[in-house]
Amino acid sequence: MTKPIQTDALPPEPRNFTPEDLGAEIVRRLTYSIGKDPSSAKPNDWMKATAYVIRDHIIDKWMESTRQTYESGEKRVYYLSLEFLIGRLMRDAVSNLGLLDEIREALDTIGVDFDAVASLEPDAALGNGGLGRLAACFMESMATVDVPAYGYGIRYVHGLFRQQMSDGWQVELPETWLAHGNPWEFERQESSYEVGFGGTVEALGENGGETQRCSWKPQERVIATAFDTPVVGWKAKRVNTLRLWTAEPIDPILLDAFNAGDHMGALRESNKAETLARVLYPADGTPAGQELRLRQEYFFSAASLQDILRRHIQQYGDLRSLPDKVAIQLNDTHPAIAVAEMMRLLIDIHAFDFDEAWEMTQQIFSYTNHTLLPEALESWPVPLFERLLPRHMQLVYAINAKILRYAWKEKSYNDDQIRSISLIQEDGERRVRMGNLAFFGSHSINGVSALHTDLMKRTVFHDLHTLFPDRINNKTNGITPRRWLMQCNPDLVSLLRETIGDGFMDDAGKLSELDKYADDSEFQARFAAVKRENKVRLANLVSRRMGLRVDPSAMFDIQIKRIHEYKRQLLNIVEAIAHYSQIRTHPERDWVPRVKFFAGKAAPSYHNAKLIIKLINDVARVINNDPAVRGLLKIAFVPNYNVSLAEVMVPAADLSEQISTAGMEASGTGNMKFALNGALTIGTLDGANVEIKEHVGDDNIVIFGLTADEVAERRANGHDPRAIIESSRDLAQALEAISSGVFSQDDPDRFKDLVQGLYDHDWFMLTADFDAYAAAQRRVDELYMDEAAWYPKTIRNTAHTGWFSSDRTIRQYASEIWKAGS
Questions:
Q1: Backbone torsions φ then ψ of 76, nearest 5 degrees
Q2: 270-281 per-position pLDDT tens digit
Q3: DSSP per residue over 330-369, as a string?
Q4: Which residues are annotated as modified residue N6-(pyridoxal phosphate)lysine in the UniProt record (predicted)?
Q5: How far apart are the C-alpha atoms of 324 and 311, rounded to whole Å?
Q6: Catalytic residue list contains 561
Q7: CA triplet 556, 559, 563: central angle to 5 degrees?
Q8: Is pLDDT above 70 for 7?
Q9: Is position 457 annotated as part of the catalytic site?
Q10: Rounded (5°) CA angle 325-331-337
Q11: 695, 718 in Cβ contact below 8 A?
Q12: Lowest mean pLDDT among 259-263, 356-360, 700-704, 776-780
């Protein structure tokens, strides 16, 4: 068993933190790591040199945290996620180190602007939306609340695509965030593992049965190599590790084939391996796309489990103490294959019998569900699964047999219930259900808002919940207040510190002390001034990127999230069309100037989502250029939404659009970010909106529309969207304008099918909620016109959303699920 080097044998070199010393360190790094003289250095050179200096200071804390965990024998948490939307790290790291002012001053002394340097850092393309950003917030909060943790994922070379607009259409381009290197990561060649696919399975011995040990001989093998990024908690109390895997072939080049002239064939294995870490969420509309996605999920799960078991054996000698020292959290179904992989490792490699391995697996794993959409609860065709992972298919059948026998004999489940819980979907094409596998293999299954958790029990996991009634629990999502308040909204933080002191910086719950200032006219004016400056910053960004001028005095109405029909960007733009018609028809009214901002990416194969983006841009082109509107309404779809763009848009929002079909948004975290930064929410009673309403008060949020139960009732008993449309003049006129080509004169039929879908079925209840949504928007106008009514509400949103800190969420996970941390 390898032990770490005694720390007293290598005393750490003392570091100085004065601006003068930090400035000297930056120049030294520029010279010896970048190879540049200060007189010829470019901004990107200064960015890297500054990052290296910050990283050096992190390393001291990182190694200290690692040694402390090893020596104390604390339980470690391993967070498996296909996404980590970490964003830029420089400001986050230096702020949590407590060196932001010193670094800023150090750069000033050598004539370099910190903000300009920080803005040059690439935005890591390691995630898509809320799930990946939640994982990033959780990693930072685990370090902040002193939970020893590793995050495991894939080091995507391109990650999610870079979004551009071509004549209003989304165009997907490779995101080249790694083109010039990543100063925050460390390659760990010693942490490399073989991962196999395909091949044959041979039994070891003659007993047979589900407890039989087997030898899997993969046909293909790749090497997973680790790249580590340190994750700094607030005040650098702990530094944890984000470990991302890249894929390499066993044989980079088949030399015989190359010398024989088959140059492409010689590199085939190399290209096949590298594809595993090339792109996040390859389009899975084709068999090849499905196969690549399953390969990715197994690749990172298998490498991560090998790493976890290796670390445990190195420290403790054997695996019997694994449940006491290891907690593995599955972030959605993407890493669910880890359940079967753990069973394979314990049975085939480490000689545990089936029942003992299964008991240990369930004690170790827990699973977070993020969706009630059946298609998002991944499943894989049995032939594909069996071809790629033959041993795992055997184990899936064995696990399924064990659970189904228990349900049949001990719980008297009928045939319908057995079909519902089975790991093998038998209706139509036979498929392996990954959500059920994650549920079976975990001792805890949590939802991410109170409503979502209740609906899990009643819908997608009803029969599983009946079988195991103690497993489902709620852990409402949270956001890290360091990035989503302290770093993205420094002027508001300065005002808060001056008004209520610094306590909220350590405990976001202390923001509640702001409540007593909500009706103070002087504080309202200062709060409004901060909002105005944030709006100016966004207006300048939109002007630079899009050439669109917007007035910061207008209401900034913002919807930023993945483009999906259930999130209802379509409802937003249809209402904007109706509002546009009213402005032109009734010029005598005192309309509130409004800018509606949209941002988000549509999955490349999601036709309707991409059509909605095109519609928004087509409508924007017409409205923004219509002099009859007199600038009272403008539309802006800001391309290439990412963390850095969100950090500008969130503090600038007056109105936060959280308008998903009730019962379909698991939680949302954008709703929390906007409220924390003093935006009023307009939304349905969906996801965490329900809990935000409870915390900020009914008078400080604008709720409209059907409830989740009402949506379910309409779907079950009949929903007649055509009748609703015909009874709503504004809605009918807006849809007629869309379908007749008013906004698409180059192709009048472009949106006919989109509109026809609303007439025919309208699964997402746009028509049912339209009139209520439009009325709610007019209530918002009335409030915005009266500053004495508006600002107390927005201030109370900031005051009462401290509960939605991810620190609170992680403390609940740690104490109630993982049994880890202090």
A1: -105, 145
A2: 677 889 999 888
A3: EESSTTTHHHHHHHHIIIIIT---HHHHHHHHHHHEEEE-
A4: 673
A5: 14
A6: yes
A7: 155
A8: no
A9: no
A10: 80
A11: no
A12: 259-263
* Cα 496 from Cα 494, distance rounded (Å): 5
Adjacent-strand bridge partners of 294: none
What are the pLDDT digits (tens) for 658-672?
999 999 999 999 999
Closest to 403 (Cα-Cα) out of 339, 459, 451: 339
The mean per-residue pLDDT over the stretch 603-616 comes to 96
Q: What's the whole-number mean pLDDT along residues 71-99?
A: 96
CA 261 to chain CA centroid, nearest Å: 46
Per DSSP, the three-state class of 277 is coil
Question: 680: helix, coil or strand?
Answer: strand
Residue 508 and residue 675 in contact, taking contact as beta carbons nearer than 8 Å: no
| Closest CA relative to residue 809, chosen from 68, 83, 79 | 79
SS3 of 424, please?
Answer: strand
DSSP H helices, 12-77, are: 19-29, 43-72
From 535, 561, 610, 808, active-site residue: 561
Find out whether 796 and 515 touch, Cβ atoms under 8 Å. yes
DSSP 512-529: GGGGGGTT-HHHHHHHHH
812 residue type, one letter: Q
Closest CA to 44 of 123, 118, 125: 118
Structure tokens at 389: 């992972």
Distance CA 329, CA 323 (A): 13
Given pLDDT bands bounded at 50, 70 and 90, which one contains residue 14?
low
CB 281 within 8 A of CB 260: no
Number of helices (H) and strands (E), helices first, in the chain?
A: 35, 22
Four-residue CA torsion sign, 501, 516, 553, 170:
positive
User: Average pLDDT in the 291-304 region?
Assistant: 97
Instruction: Please list the alpha-helical segments (H only) found in 73-180.
Output: 90-97, 100-109, 114-118, 130-144
**What tens digit of pLDDT does each residue of 617-648 get?**
999 999 999 999 999 999 999 999 999 999 99
End-to-end CA distance of the chain: 27
How far does CA 453 lie from the centroid of its chain? 19
Question: Which residues have C-beta within 8 Å of that of residue 392, sequence separation ≥ 6?
Answer: 298, 337, 340, 341, 344, 385
Catalytic residue among 104, 465, 531, 567: 567
Give the CA angle between residues 401, 407, 410 to the nearest 5°. Answer: 120
Query: Are the C-beta atoms of residues 444 and 474 closer than 8 Å to each other?
Result: no
Contact between residue 95 and residue 118 where contact means Cβ atoms under 8 Å apart:
no
Helix pair angle (390-409, 354-364), 10° resolution: 90
Q: Helix axis angle, 287-316 relative to 337-344, nearest 10°?
A: 50
Q: Label the pairing between strands 326-331 and 76-80.
A: parallel
Q: Which domains are assigned to the chain?
A: 73-88+123-476+811-818 (3.40.50.2000), 554-804 (3.40.50.2000)
Q: What is the per-residue pLDDT across 472-517, written as a single tens digit (0 to 9) for each? A: 999 999 999 999 999 999 999 999 999 999 999 999 999 999 999 9
The catalytic position among 55, 158, 295, 673 is 673
What is the average pLDDT value for the chain, to the nearest integer?
Answer: 94
How many whole angstroms from its chain centre is CA 62?
25
Alpha helices in 589-688 (DSSP H): 607-624, 643-652, 670-676
* Contacts (Cβ under 8 Å, ≥6 apart) of 253: 266, 267, 270
User: Among the options 238, 370, 564, 811, which is catalytic?
Assistant: 370
Respond yes or no: is residue 567 known to be catalytic: yes
Q: pTM of the full predicted structure?
A: 0.95
Residues 311, 510, 537, 562: which is the catalytic one?
Answer: 562
Go through the chain and tell me how many residues it has. 822
Q: How many CA atoms lie within 13 A of 101 on its CB side?
A: 3
Residue 448: phi and psi, rounded to 5, are -120, 10
Strand 379-381 and strand 424-425: the pairing is: unpaired
Q: Is the dihedral of CA 201, 207, 209, 213 positive or negative?
A: negative
In the block, tokens 């939802």 appear at: 447
Average pLDDT over residues 220-235: 96
